[in-house]
């Protein structure tokens, strides 16, 4: 592989006009495609295999035209102080509002609060429920604007009016913090390279890659039903890995220049060596992201595949566009050790070189491996303690900012009708095989009334055929509580007894039940996902490092960092530590998608640093250095760059903490803190300590496996042999 990439790097350097033209053309085509593509509605949401989804599908068959899984909006009214919603003036305003709400083309029905008895006991709060033909993710902007305008008319009449439900779902925005993250990355690159030109290359190539990836996602959004969160995730990961991959190529290029090589040769060798690490690091990220498909949640699968495509583009750009731009830069990119005027004059040639910080740190770790290992493991273990209290759920209106109308509507409904009113359960009774459907409906209602935490059970509402009915159940607890989850399971358990006595099937659905089912589905998929992703990456790393213990150590270190990161997420988003600093106004359960998503993304990114740092150690070891000295050599060449890459990735991810979407905010924080733990504690401390303790055993591989594995030549052995660099003074170590 090193030889092929070496030739590709030289070709890209020499034919830079052609390479640059190809990438600019791709960016232009993607941009034109995105601009001319039909406007994409919000993506649909379905969870195959869950009971809640089965109930929705059944309702579509038995109650045609009712759009059971369509969007809903609860328009909540509160009377002025000292008045009631039953006062004639307030009642007239509400009825006029209901009439206006019914005019929308996508509206199925609107309930009148006075006919539906949707007025609180004290008479101060009432609500009208609007049902739509399509889901909240598919509702067009015109319908949302009409809903808000109608509510504003009622406000002007003197009522307090807020809108809850999923009808006002909005495209998340990240705010200025995303720009700040890119600015931090630019500053780190300038400090690392001491040159604006060298620093600008990784930023430019990363932006080109993200531009192509996000434009392609936008262009295909309508055809493939991709949501707005998909492009946000692709941008987040694409920026981070795009900058990092280019950073490693440029750094290796400068190191090759420092050894006296011509610029074209240096570009070829940089791509042949560091480029090999980029390929395998990118493969681990792609495996982790594509592996999200095992969860069988279409939205998550699409997010993973789209982000993986952006990572693949970042790899290709690093291997081709970066050497092409190095050709354009010429002597403006200086050899390693030479710095531009930004950082002062270079040292005199005859002045002895002082060991850099990476060399000094690695030397310390090699001398004190046990102490460093214990300190790192204990520290990460302490950070992981909050993860033992992890509670999972999906965000509802109660987790919104207090400034949003959805959150204010949520609070008003809780005030007027109780906390469980925000999470009604819909029970579907399928009595098609029952001898007496009416008796089955009645028995189901009676069974549910006897369960704990049930406040209200509405009478059964049968369909025209009389073989299926819906029953609405109002819990006593808020939607995201464990008590409500237990009630859902209690109704389903009671359904088994009902089926035995009446031959009727009882299914529980609704947004609350759907959230519970999604959380359980994600929990059940976590272990198979871990086995698949970690297993495939483990095999890949065996090929890269030609070792058993190094990949094993990499996987165990990853588990430490991801558990510590989950602990930090729990501490901030569930316990409320530093929640004000992070803009978290409402603590609650951690998003159920977070653990499996963090495992996938963080594993791929963690292996980036493992590959970049440890391949340089293996390269030194293969070419004759002792194990301990190889660790120091790896840090001398790679620590500064890995540190810069980690800081850049943290800055990019942290930039998304300012998002208005709670899911994006949590993902941004979780990935940023996970990169910190993995790069600076695991890869910079635990990894060299373990390698120092293992010595030559770290690079042991059974002979039969060594013969069976393909030789991918990540360390560039073939390049040295071809150029005569390996002059026989030292023999390659056989491992």
UniProtKB/TrEMBL annotation:
Give the CC-aspect GO terms.
plasma membrane
Coarsely, its chief localization is membrane
Query: What compartments host this protein?
Result: Cell membrane
- Origin organism lineage: Bacteria, Bacillati, Actinomycetota, Actinomycetes, Kitasatosporales
Cross-referenced PANTHER family? MEMBRANE PROTEIN MJ1562-RELATED, MEMBRANE PROTEIN SCO6666-RELATED
Q: Which residues form a coiled coil?
A: none
**What domain of life does the native source organism fall in?**
Bacteria
Tell me where in this chain the SSD domain is found: 196-328
The UniProt entry's sequence similarity note says: Belongs to the resistance-nodulation-cell division (RND) (TC 2.A.6) family. MmpL subfamily.
Keywords in alphabetical order, please: Cell membrane, Membrane, Transmembrane, Transmembrane helix
InterPro entries, per the entry: MMPL_dom (IPR004869), Mycobact_MmpL (IPR050545), SSD (IPR000731)
Q: Which residues cross the membrane?
A: 179-199, 206-224, 230-250, 271-297, 303-329, 370-390, 526-549, 556-578, 590-609, 641-660, 666-694
Statement: the UniProt record of this protein carries the keyword Membrane: yes
Q: How does it sit in the membrane?
A: Multi-pass membrane protein
Identification of the protein by name: RND superfamily putative drug exporter
